[in-house]
Records
---
Amino acid sequence: MREKIIIGLAAFSGALLAWNMNTIFTALPDELNQGAIYRIIYFHVPANILGMVGFGLGMLFSIGYLVTKNLRYDALAASVTEVSLVFASIGLATGSIWARIIWGVWWAWDYRLTSWLVCWLIFGGYLMLRRAVDEPNQRARFAAVVSILGSVNAYISYKSIEWWNTQHPQPVLSIRNGGGMAQGMEAPIWWNLLALACFSAILVMVRMRQESFANEIDTLRRMAHAQ
Amino acid sequence: MNALEIAGVWKYYGDFPALREVGLNITPGSTMALLGRNGAGKTTLLRIIAGLSRPSRGSIKIQGSIGILGHGIGVYDELSAIENLTLFGRLHDLPEPRKRAEEMLERVGLGRVRDGLAREFSRGMRQRLAVGRAFLHDPEVLLLDEPFTALDDRAIAVLQSMIQQMRDRGRTIIMSTHQLREALELASHVALLQRGQIVHTGERTQQMLDDTGWLYRTYGDN
Amino acid sequence: MFLRQVWTITTKDLHSELRTKEAWNASIAFSVVILLLFSFAFDPSSEQIREFSGGLLWMTYAFAGALVLNRSFAREVQNDCLDALIASPVSSAALFVGKALANFSMLFAVELVSLPVFVLFYNVPWGAAQFLPMLLVLVLGTWALTVIGTLFSALTVNLRLRELMLPTLVYPMMIPALIAAMTITTNLLAGSPVGFGIRFLVAFDIIFTLLAVVFVDTVLVG
């Protein structure tokens, strides 16, 4: 069943991604001020949304673990956070490429960029912490606390473009008082978000299976040691 | 009314059950020897009773306060003997903690060195200080994890006399130990843990004293 | 009861720290050395120095603070004192608040000692007008460092790679508060309006204090 869902999702997100590429690279014109490079937004924005939403989901699963003490929630939190970190990295990298062209620098220390980098570091620390704890329940507890505290920083990053004057552009999406994009230019962001979301769901499912194997190995090892 | 009621306690490490459906009722005034091999779950059970770890399932009810004496001595190296005991007296909200601490130091034979730092004490003195710390607030339930290992002769004598006094006053004691003979001599009851399960619990009989291997042979699976 | 326990823990920590002065001496020496080293990295007599004076100061505090915070729970595991504390009637929250207050006092004292050094070395314009607002920023910023540092000190204390994990987790978590404190300090010293930073710092302090008090039991006991 899991296999079929994964294959189905992969086919759907692959097809959608291909169609999106076609729209983005052939159908849409260059942007008036930025030229061709603006197209990076179709990856930059969905990747960062997935990163941020993922960190939030990770926090919810972490709370789920602390409430139920069911290790499946911990596995979910770990998987979602790890995949989100990949998307946050893509978001940072695409942003950096865009900044090099438009601002002339790879990196600017404004509040949005800095706070998002801080999140990246915190959730990187989350994954490192998981490796440093051997006992699964203790690992789950510690990781959950870091995830919950880290989400406060994710929220700060989300709000940073409202709270401070940032060099980072203001919101462009119509749902966040943006709507600054021309007709037809916004829709591909959403389609790409959907495609990448399906893709990240696949990654989470694969990662979850890995977690359950790791858990099984840990249990067998403990049984062997307990004679 | 039981001093301690443990019902349906499970403890998982990941998916591995370190304790399985542990149930124990201990009547006030009894001395329970918790026996079992390494890794059978003795320390896990004691830590759960002491509140240092939470059970995955099940419940624990304790009447009154607890005292613990574990592997570490649980006193601060940078504080003097009297400061250490006064500190724990305050934390247990005892009236006149300082006076109680002084009395206790006399009882464990550290009255003369009460202002010495724990760091400067010999091994045996530190152990006696630890005994004083565990007994200071006159706990209703006393938990001892391997109490006789690593103690020197004088500390063992102090501990044994303190345990005797506790028993005379109807306090409850639970101790886990490898030293079968010492434990069985002190115990009124025994519980045998095997792979996280209690396979036998009951009064300590003369037969156990006469033949210390009997318990394992009868109730253990090898 | 809660406040009395908090006070007992705080005085205990301060007392044992004052006896050895390990963390205190290391922290003071370290902060002075850092301030000295920074003066080689930047020209301390230039006008520019005002623009990043706040940053320098808080970097120094964050690094020096790590020495104090690192010791905080390490002191408790030494003789398994943490077990004795948790088994006593002290709640995890009281334990946390008590230790946080002790860390705060130590860190604050280190800051008050190194602040004049900073003012002297970097020729910082200093007047009575700056004093009270600066004190407020010091309190708010230091509390943010303390709360996060103390919680993670508890979380990492039993880990292998503790020395690596503590800074990896603590510094990123502190950065928003550090940036706010740096900006306010720089603005204060330059005589510009302080603005949004103070409100942010207050909110940060409140949120993380609440989270830490709620989750410290999860960290310590589970």
---
Amino acid sequence: MSPATLQAPALHPRCTSLLLAAWGLALLPLLGQLPLFLGAACILVGLWRWQALQRGWPLPARRLRLLLTLAAMAAVQLTFGTVLGRDAGTALLTLMLALKLLETRRPRDGALVLALTYFLTATLALYDQSLPVLLYQLLVFLVVTAALVQLQYGPRPASTAQVLRQAGGLILQALPVMLILFVLFPRLPGPLWGTPAAGDGGLDDRMSPGSISRLGQSDAVAFRVRFDGPVPDSSLLYWRGPVLWYTDGRNWLAQAESDAPGSRPPTLQLDGEAVRYQVTLEPHGRRWLYALDLPTLLPPGSHRHADLLLLASRPVNQVLRYTTASHLHYRTGALTPERRRLALQLPAGANPRTLELGRRLRAQSADDWGVVQAALRFFRDQPFYYTLEPPLLDQPHPLDQFLFQTRRGFCEHYAAAFTVLMRAAGIPSRIVTGYQGGTRNPVGGYLVVRQRDAHAWSEVWLPQEGWVRVDPTAAVAPQRIERGIDTALEQELAHPFRQPHGGSVWDRLHHGLDVLHDGWNQWVLGYGHDLQQQLLARWGLGDWSKRAWLLAGALLLALAVVVALLVLAQRRRRDPAARLYGRFCRKLARCGLARRPSEGPRDFADRISRSRPEWAAQAQAICRLYTELRYAPTGTGEPSGKRRLNELRQRIRRFRP
Amino acid sequence: MSRPAIRSRTEARTIGLLERALAAMSDIILGKETVLRQALTCLLARGHLLIEDLPGVGKTTLAHVLARTLGLRFQRIQFTSDMLPADILGVSVYDQERAAFRFHPGPIFSQLVLADEVNRATPKAQSALLEAMEEFQVTTEGETHPLPQPFFVIATQNPVHQIGTFPLPESQLDRFLMRLHMGYPDRVAERALLLGQERRSLLQALEPVLDPETLLRIQAEVPRLHVSEALVDYLQALLAYSREAPLFRNGLSPRAGLALLRCAQAWALLEGRDHVLPEDVQAVLPAVAGHRLQPAADHPAGDGDLSTALLEAVAVP
């Protein structure tokens, strides 16, 4: 240790406790992300340091600290198999910072710990970027900054309230800079460091019985939609997702785009006006963008799959905002032989009774549409029930079991059964997954589509029409389509905090919070690389050098404004007489007679009189007025004081050295 | 110079009296106007004075002149190493006629006490004096005897030839409101001294200008002098700097701050003002703070430099 370190004073206990509080606040939300035993280790280390502070427990010796550090690194390596990446990196940072506390005795260590605590707080954004988390981060920043301020007081600490106030002031001063950096700092096109996909998935490009009813329990928002015009009828709100072609009798799979035969866009015939709307999509880690059947306006950077599905160029890992338009009435064109073959594919030997029913329907009906009607009639007339909790289909022929025994199912059961029936009857058909309906938020005037609005339906190909949507669920539970999933499953979903129908205060609060969340998504999280490009291009800032100048200029301006405000605030607090006297002193300083800071007014007046006798009378009069105003019993507040203040102002104005 | 702001006739009279007293003293102690003014300031602020200087520069004469001019009863105590507290405070003697103990007051029962060479006495005798100074009363054998009013102690200390002496510790120095150095007279003053009349006879001829009652009234006037917010700001800036700067071993205590304020008020009164200016604080600070500031271990400097450094470092707001 160098002599300088030996002499450095120890951290004041009050500073240490504030530092520990800041660290604890930063650690708290990360505990949920850490493996349990690592979190417990951090807490234990923190408690140890706290006891060391409170009761004078000894801090561990250097050898033990080294051992603990190695153990922590080994633990992270063993738990995650790596020390890199988001999860392992955060765990390592958290543990190392906790261990650093055990050797934090001097202000130098304290500053390091606090700087790392800022960083630790920032890692929270790798897991969650919602508004509450940001507010919490600001709170932690406040406490960390307060601890840094306290550090500067050294051996004579200020009260905690005072350092918190000062830290608040500092954060307020930093706000303009933060806003400028938010708007202007170049944004990366992808997420930082390949952050793992956020969001709880939503729909997949495969389907099996139970995969959609699983989502039926989830309140998580899938996306929010703002229509330019009126919201279309709910029976038309089919948000298209992955299209499933291939089945093994139980599971359904989509085609990879590359091996989709005939990927060229089908010829479309569109009827009526397009509906324009904006979607703010929550990250789901997949490439598809949800849109109403049938999207005709492609958002920038996306294209339309042959299955009439919008695909982005990259997986959606951040909140994404896009504008699109759809035609709700359309006809698709002809079907290529390869696609016809795929649309009729059936696994050999599976579900024999279902196939037999399909063939029987074919025989009874005149044309394809007749078969569709007959199948829907079958669902309607037989005692089928729509339920979130269907019995398990565990026999070798699940569709047979469903159609002829259990007859209780969610949308994926009906869609799968119907599609297989159609294929058995020789009609090309496929399953479309996506979302149906949505809840209107009366406060924000937009539509919220949640995970439990997930849905699956069928499309059949008819010679004159092309692909036609048929929703067998609508035959079983028409209210699902007309009035949403809550009405359809009222009994099963009847718990008090479920989605609102009425207009109670609770409902309004719920809607209001969603509006807040939506605004946050739209304006903060949705402000990514593309929107920034658009915005800056609209300001005529196409190239990077201009943007760099703007960024630098705006930052300088913001700092100048902050400094000017501080100076003004300080000047306003000063006595008016002192301000006038300052002007007098500046005038004299310009002709080489500067007042020394420690020089009293009378000494200064006497010095002026000695060195420049021609100014003596004026200087003495000004000095007399000034000392009376500042130091005598009559202050500037009283009438005589006001008069004297005016006289002082006049004299100083007239004084021209 | 600005005209003094005078509020009433009695005040005008007070100031006139004080100026006359100062003039009378200056006639005898030549070329030491500032020291005289500071000594009088100390007295007006109801504090006690420590003079540190070589023998023969006029410490005793200063005490005599003050007592004479202000009309105070004077007593001189020469401190020696075999001195006992009773030699200062007085003793209780058994009175056979009245069959009771009777208190015989010591030399301290006087209005102006010159404690000469206070560092020659043992700490025990010193603390007897210092306690009396602090309390304005003497307590022996369970009986409390108030000291006469006004009560003013001038202690002298010889800074050289310290062998066999007990220099006052820093905590005891704090009991003295001011510490002054007389210093040698300048050339002109010394010439006048050499050629002039003998000082003792001049002293005998000196007529009192004030009486104890007037002095008490003026003393009561001092704390009422106006102190503005701006001046308190300055005072606090000085105190804060003394506590924060690495120059000083310890900062000025609140008691030192109060002493500074009282002395500045007394100084302003002597100047004939009804309010305190930063210059008043600056005038008294070396005498008030000089013996309370010690240089920090790694900043060796003379203590005279310390109060100047303090004044130079703090801006007048």
